[in-house]
Amino acid sequence: MLLEIFLPLIKYFSALNIFRYITFRTGAALVCALFVCFFIGPRLIRFLARVKAGQNIRSDGPDTHKSKSGTPTMGGLLILAGLVLAMLLFGNLGNPYVIIALIATLQFGLIGFLDDYLKIVRKDTRGLPGRYKILMQCIVSLSVVGALYLNPLQSTELTKISIPFFAEFSIDLDWLYIPFAIVLLIGSSNSVNLTDGLDGLAIGLTLIVAAAFAAIAYVTGHFNIATYLKIPFLPGSAELAVFCGALFGAGVGFLWYNAHPAEVFMGDTGSLALGGALGLIALMLKKEMLLVLVGGVFVAEALSVIIQVGYFKLKGRRVFRMAPLHHHYELGGWHENKVITRFWIVGLLLAILALATLKVR
Questions:
Q1: Cβ atoms within 10 A of the Cβ of 66, count?
Q2: DSSP helix/strand/coil, 171
Q3: Mean pLDDT of 144-153
Q4: Residue among 359, 235, 280, 229 at smallest CA distance from 105
Q5: For the chain, what is the domain count?
Q6: Model confidence at 248: pLDDT above 90
């Protein structure tokens, strides 16, 4: 919004030229989203507590989590508020990447909101039936893929996916790219949802991935740097760095209230939206396979659930003490803070490795 307002005024006030710079607007969006969360946070938490929007803790979870029952949930509304307001002010609203990212993130957040609402009304942890949740995620994901095909800025090689560490090698999935992209978006959204089980764990890992993707978005949308690194150059994609900056700022603002002991949980409203956003960014930047690396902790959490359920159905025994993976380590004697910190460290190392693949090719 500010970009559109100030651009015509640059010839009169040269200082406004700073709004042309993506680096400035990324930093401004970050700070804006952060302060929006600081301003709205206490008010939203009090409102959620007043309407008794408390978290219902699963009965088979670790005993240490029972004291968290009743903690306000649906805090993802705070993240979305910071993200949207920051992007409305500092994003380029004429950029298709920005519009697709914003609309789809809100759609994933709406699915999560419905799930949270039903959990609160019914006073149990089941919420929206799984088949309906997946169906709604499929519809949103399919609309995203369609929008990417229609995006005038998107590369004509949309169906090709690159492989980390290999500069000249890519795989053209052709029409199979559509189901691939849908699975990636649904998987990304649900993996963050599964990781959201400890105070600050999911949002901290999201911050790491968002920071990595901000850097990747900037170089992908910069012709000279992209050419030097031998990665696909996507005109206009650098605007996603602003989106990642806003996501990072909103995440930090939420973490202020979600750090142990949490005053509020993000709920599915936040986790499905964040996971969807990360998958979206990977798709739009043509870094689909890199998402598996930079979001490796999310992948491990999701795989632990798949392995646990599959092995139990086949053999009648469990592989982990409890799934998702963070509960396995909790039941193994690790304190909650230790699990969170160590998972963050692993996430940071994976993000550094992912960034290294841009050069080591």
A1: 11
A2: strand
A3: 85
A4: 280
A5: 1
A6: yes
| Choice among 22-36, 156-170, 175-189, 200-214 with the minimum mean pLDDT | 156-170
Residue that the structure tokens 């800025």 belong to: 153
Whose tokens are 């086949």? That residue is 314
Burial code (b: 16+ CB inside 10 Å, e: under 16) for 90-104 equals: bbbeebbbbbbbbeb
pLDDT in tens, 278-329: 999 999 999 999 999 999 999 999 999 999 999 888 888 899 999 899 999 9
> Cα–Cα distance between 342 and 113 in angstroms, integer?
30
How is residue 200 annotated by DSSP? T
d(CA 257, CA 203) in angstroms, rounded, equals: 11
Residue 11 lies in a domain: no
E strand or H helix at 158: none
Can you give the pLDDT at residue 151? Answer: 78
Give a yes or no: residue 307 inside a domain.
Answer: no
Residue 270 pLDDT class (50, 70, 90 cuts) = very high
CA distance 192 to 305: 12
Residue 283 lies in a domain: yes
Residue pair 199/326 in contact (Cβ under 8 Å)? The answer is: no
Structural domain for 50, as ranges: 24-292
Give the C-alpha separation, 207 to 297, whole Å: 13
Q: What is the pLDDT of residues 171-184, one digit of tens each?
A: 888 889 999 999 99
Residue 259's pLDDT band (cuts 50, 70, 90): very high
Please state the pTM of the whole predicted model: 0.94
323 domain-assigned: no
Mean pLDDT across the chain: 89
Backbone CA torsion sign across 331, 335, 341, 345: negative
CA 264 to chain centre: 18
What's the CA gap between 322 and 224, in Å, rounded?
48
Three-class HEC string of 58-99: CCCCCHHHHHHCCCECCCHHHHHHHHHHHHHHHCCCCCHHHH
